[in-house]
Amino acid sequence: MKNEIKLLLEKLNIDPVYFNELEKASIEKVLVYDGIDKMKIILKNDTNLSIDLYRELTNSLKNFFGGKDIYLYVDVMRVNNDYFKDYFNEMVDIIKRKNPIIEIFTDRLINRDEKYYVEVINRAEERQVENFLSDMNNIMKMFGYELNIKTVLNEAKRDDVASGIKKNLEVDVKNFVAPVNTVKEEKKKKYERREVDENTIKGRVIKDAVTSIKSIDREMDDVTIEGQVFGNDTFEPASKEFKIIILKMTDFTDSITCKLFLRDDEEYQNIVKKAKVGTWLKIHGSIKMDKYSNNELVLNIRDINAVNYDVAKRQDDSPRKRVELHTHTKMSDMDGVCDEVDLVRQAMQWNHPGIAITDHDCCQAFPHVYSEVNKYNATLNAPLKEAKKRVKSLEEQLEKIVDEDEKRQLQRQYEQALADLAKEEEKKKDHPDFKALYGTELEMSENFLNIVYNCRDEKIDDVTFVIVDTETTGFNAGLSDSMIEIGAVKVRNGIVQEERFDELINPGCHIDASITNLTGISDYKVKDADNEENVIKRFKEFIGDGVLVAHNAKFDKSMLDMAYYKYGLGKMTNPIVDTLMLSRVINKDLKRHSLSALTKFYKIEMDEEIEEDEDDGGTAVQEDDSFNNDYSGVKTITVDGKVAYEKSTGNSYQVEFEEETEIDLE
Predict the structure, then answer these.
(1) 583 vs 613: CA distance, rounded Å
(2) Contact 229, 247 (CB under 8 A)
(3) Which of 308, 414, 500, 650 could form a disulfide with 394 if both were Cys (CB 3.0 to 4.6 A apart)?
(4) Are 60 and 12 in contact (CB under 8 A)?
(5) What is the per-residue pLDDT across 95-107, written as a single tens digit (0 to 9) for each?
(6) Whose CA is closest to 342, among 308, 369, 376, 303?
(7) How far is CA 352 from the centre of its chain?
(8) Is 164 helix (H, G, I), strand (E, B) or coil?
(9) 3-state SS class at 276
């Protein structure tokens, strides 16, 4: 097997069981169409691929190239007819998405003298077949079969069909009427014998076998599903000739929309009342493609039965109940879906002592939770409150009564009331008031910007600046992401030096298509590159004790720091200047601080266009004699924990710093 094929199969994670089929394969040509997501790959092989391998290759290539439509052409030296039927059925499936009528002719393909024809019985069928004949030949050619399929008219079969129709039409008038009446009577009797019971909401009792919603993948007649209503809606067109009930059903394998059209208002109201959210129903009808539902498959309802289905409820059997201290409700935008009252009721049902509502950036759930908790506690405390009220009432009556007999009788009632109160107090110990904790999760922002990391006192004239930029597989340095390129150039006294560093890095994993689109770096480009450990060691040697400069340095610093940590290189102590933050401080009137915006502002001409990234990331440098960086007379000193920049004009600017140089935004 050629190396290029083996490398491709490994990158696509193709099952090694298929490798033998591609032992003599080679990639002849790859065509990428500009402006459209389409790619044509020509694969040369000694014979046709199995249909399973062909499908796996096309699907894997589509995923690998970010969803592009892949057209895999197989150029074969020897045709394998064992796979012909599989590919013919595959071709029919492709064409019927645009032209479903092809299914009529799937059994009409005939082979005469090693040539293929589609048999038709009249000119009308011939015109229908010619609409997709070209597609049939092109698709089969893509699969590796040069067929040149044509149509052939079978006049003998046409005559047989015509005589059969004529014979069927030759019916005696006397014998013609009776069968029609019989059919009507049978239909009428069948309708009259329609079975209903107390669970029948519409139509008849459904006795058909239940179909799993997950298995419904095409239009079908006489389908029965059973599931729970999780959404319902009603609609009345402007004509008001009928009403529509829309039920969203799930059997927890998948979900489907069901529609019912009604004219009778009483029947409409009855179904709306009985098909509420949460109820279980058995529904019989037909599956059709619905253009009003974005061409989704919809079940058109004929019969509805109620189903007695006991859903097993989850229980909390732990003797020591938990308290959830971090709960997000639907009030947390894009971070919660549960209703706040339902959450509190669930905690109460499980006998939890309380719950904390901590939504993102809002407290809109608080009033609803407060009201629900108060109602629950009021109901919980009602028996105890009533017992206390009873005892107090009897005490007052005992003080007023003089008659000894009545007093003894009332005393017995009072003692019973005290016993009842004691029982309620014991119950209360086991069921204390439910407590709600109210909090919120807020997004906080720092009130300072880091312009310089790892500060040190040094004259600018003596500093070697290293302008650096990194490309990575992602944004999480602490997780699985790593660098795939490091580029750097040295600058002294405003002059770009010849010393440069530019190396690609093999991350040892697949580079996502989105990263390739952003950086232009693909798996193929880094396949022969060195690993991250060796490259970062050479980079450390290159920068020495120089001052690093990067645009959006926080990101590059995180990747370099993690690389130093992973490979035992100690802590990066080089000062790092972030030009993005620096520009935000000194160019306060600029709306944007991306590299392209800054080069226009400072009138620096670039050899290549700088793409504007959303994060204002990226770093570039260009020597330009017209832009004179005069650092003469500039030095840095430290005074009482503050760094000051002094120039011959006598002006000074102070910035307070601790470990990092910070500028207070306030």
Answers:
(1) 16
(2) yes
(3) 414
(4) yes
(5) 877 777 777 777 7
(6) 369
(7) 33
(8) helix
(9) coil
